[in-house]
Design goal:
This protein is of the alpha/beta class and 454 residues long. Helix content is 32%, strand content 19%.
Length: 454
């Protein structure tokens, strides 16, 4: 049945794709259609869509591309999907951060990068949907009510410290002081929380970090895990920061402190609870812990345990690689300086196993952001070009290939953070790039030029 209604002025959920043989296709929905209401409830975002569409009887209000409004009745199983995909999870503006954190990485970027890199996402909906970390400082009463009523769990929360005054100072916002009552409120509602502490040496490490982790452990199991991650500092910082980058010594101290607390948490909670990010072990020159250390990897998206997974997957696949290649193959593996030692270890294993293969590692210094930024994902096309041109004669033989990780590129667009594309690097250097997935299988496939099967 069709009808024409007067619709409010707002951004609606626009359909991008319709699955073949789906309910949506059967009732005539098309890409470009806008989903306005389900059962007379506004569909504000994909969270509303999933919640409202989980019913046996649906009445959809849809605005077609020509402006006509359709009313569509549907009967289905409760768990049966309509077969709709949307252009975005959240139409309109996302909730951005209102804090002025002394360690904010976005504020330490140069001008002139693509606009998306300056977005300070602090939207609780993205926290629920994608695991983005939020501060809780910009929630109004309606947001809290929605989180509770819809039981949006888990949420990922940037805590940094449980010291009220210190948190307000670090985040440049007096509203940041109430983190413990806010976490208690979520806990009472049954919302599970994964926390994050960005360690700024001299500010919230040492005794303050110990206090923070002990305070949060009192809220377990609602606060299920805490990632302890190092602050990132670029050469573009506009003010003199009251702390210093994480170095070898502070990394060791942080690991030792967290390890001591973990032993107590294991006895009282049955879990290690707090986990240092991989970067701490790299900076401290410590071995990456075993798989068991990370339990069920609750903070994997925060760089906690990624290297252990890479190492174990690599060692599991290595025996399945060929013992020789039909033709000699020379690979130059580009990485950030932090991962240089790990990649040297893996390339050495490959070189010893596979006859005819020569893999060399090129750790690229990040001149764009500054040498203190040493992770692979923040390498720019320009720095890679400079490194390749500087070392071309010493590294790469004719016919050789350069392997880079997909983590250096914007997802879906294949653009480096400085706006250059892989084709630009190839054109400037005369070298062919092979882009590989950021895992052991992707690495081996790119290096060997053939898929490694289980």
């Amino acid at each position: 049945m069709k009808a024409v209604n007067c619709l409010p002025e707002m951004n609606f959920m626009t359909i991008s794709d319709i699955e073949h043989d789906s309910i949506a296709e059967e009732v005539g929905l098309e890409p470009g259609d806008e989903l306005v209401r389900i059962n007379n409830e506004m569909v504000r975002d994909v969270i509303d869509y999933y919640n409202l569409s989980a019913s046996e009887t649906l009445e959809l209000e849809v605005r077609k591309a020509d402006g006509e409004t359709w009313m569509i009745s549907i009967e289905k199983d409760v768990d049966e999907h309509l077969g709709i995909r949307f252009i975005t999870d959240i139409p309109g503006k996302i909730r951005q951060c209102s804090n002025k954190c002394i360690f904010c990485f976005v504020d330490q970027q140069p001008r002139g990068l693509r606009k998306s890199l300056y977005i300070k996402d602090d939207d609780f909906r993205h926290s629920f949907l994608h695991g983005n970390y939020i501060s809780l400082t910009n929630l109004d009463s309606a947001d809290w009510e929605r989180i509770m009523e819809m039981h949006l769990s888990p949420l990922y929360i940037s805590i940094h410290t449980t010291n009220p005054r210190l948190r307000s100072k670090m985040m440049g916002n007096p509203d940041a002081s109430g983190i413990i009552p806010q976490l208690q409120k979520l806990a009472e509602a049954g919302i599970r929380i994964h926390g994050q502490v960005v360690v700024c040496p001299g500010i919230n490490d040492g005794d303050q970090l110990e206090r923070t982790l002990n305070d949060l452990a009192l809220l377990w199991p609602s606060v299920s895990s805490v990632a302890v991650v190092p602050v990132g500092i670029t050469k573009f910082q506009r003010f003199r920061l009251p702390f210093f980058p994480v170095d070898h010594g502070s990394a060791k101290d942080t690991i030792d402190l967290v390890s001591e607390l973990q032993r107590g948490f294991k006895l009282t909670l049955g879990t290690s609870f707090a986990f240092p990010a991989d970067e701490f072990f790299l900076k401290a020159g410590r071995e990456i812990p075993s798989m068991e250390y990370y339990e069920d990897f609750p903070q994997i998206e925060n760089g906690v345990g990624l290297i252990r997974i890479l190492l174990d997957e690599f060692n599991g696949l290595l025996p399945k690689t060929p013992r020789s290649l039909p033709e000699e193959r020379h690979i130059l593996l580009v990485t950030g300086t932090a991962m240089g030692p790990i990649m040297n270890r893996l390339s050495g294993q490959l070189n010893r196993r596979v006859e005819g293969l020569r893999v060399e590692v090129l750790p690229v210094v990040n001149s764009f952001f500054g040498e203190t930024v040493d992770v692979t994902g923040l390498l720019t096309g320009g720095d890679i070009i400079d490194a390749l041109l500087k070392h071309r004669d010493g590294y790469l033989r004719p016919g050789g290939k350069v392997v880079i990780s997909r983590i250096m590129l914007k997802w879906g667009d294949n653009i480096f953070i400085d706006g250059l594309k892989p084709q630009d690097v190839e054109k400037r250097t005369g070298m062919e790039l092979t882009i590989v997935d950021d895992n052991a299988r992707g690495l081996l496939t790119g290096v060997l030029g053939q898929e490694v099967r289980n």
